[in-house]
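On clarity, I found the account of how folds are encoded harder to follow than it need be. For illustration, here is how one protein appears when written out as sequence plus C-alpha cells:

:::
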Amino acid sequence: MKNRKAEKLRNEFDKGFHEGFTLTDILKRQWRLGNLIGRGGFGNVYTVFPCDSSQVSEYKISDFSAKIEPHSNGPLFTEVAFYQRVATQEKISNWCSKKGLKFLGIPPYLSTGCDKTNKPHRFIILARLGLNVENIWQEMNKNFSTSTIYQIGYRLLECLEYIHQFGYSHGDIKTSNLMTGYNDDLTNCRIYLMDFGLACSFMNKSIHKQYKEDPKRRHDGTIEYTSLDAHNGVAVSRRGDLVNLGFVILHLLQGDLPWISLISDKEKVLFEKSM
C-alpha cells in the first residue's frame, strides 16, 4: 500500500515538473527545467538553465542543477539554511584565499525558491555536478588506488575543516554523497561533499552543546557509516563527522566493512564498531 502511495506521489511530481517548466527563485530569476538527472526518496534533481544568462554571469558557472522537494520536507529546508548561513560563494572564496586553496569541495550555491503551481515545493539551485563516487567505485570493481582514496579523504577533511569552523556538522558522510565535478573524473580528485539535509549546529552562543544521549535518535544516519555518538542518540559534532569519514575511508580501502553483514541488527553493528 505504501509503495502504491509513493508511486502515485512520484507520478504527480513528475507530471508537475516537466522539461521546459519554469521556476522563479527568491531573486525573481527564472530557471527552465531540463532533463531529470537524479531521483531521491523525497524529490528529484534536474538540469536547469537560466532564462536570462546575464543574471548569473557573475558566478562563472555554465551548468546548473535544481533539487526539488515538497515544501513540507525538512531536509531540503535544512540544506538551504546551511548554504545561506555557512556556504555562500563569497564565504567559500574568502576561506580559500585565507587558506591558499584553489578548490573546496562544497557545491556552489546560487539560489532557492518555492513553487506553488500545484502543491507547494521548495527548490535549491546549485552548480551541476558529475558522477557519484559510489557508482564509480562499483564500476571499478571496488578497486580504487590507495593514492586516490587518500586524496578523497584529504579533500573531505578540507570540507569538514570549513564547515566545522562555522559550528556545523554534516552528519551523513558516505560514498553516495560524494561526487565529481561536471565532466570530471577521479584523476584530478575534485571531489564534492553533497547533501547537507542532516547538517546541524553543534554550537550554542560559541559554546559546544552538551553531550546528551537521546533514545529516540539512536542509530540515526546511514547505518554502515554511523558514528558511535549517533548510534547512542547523540547529535553529530566534529568527532562524529571524523569517525564517519574514517569508516568511509576504511570501506574504500577494504572493499567492505567488517559489520556489513550485520546491518539489519543495529545493536550488533554498534557492538562491532565498539570493539
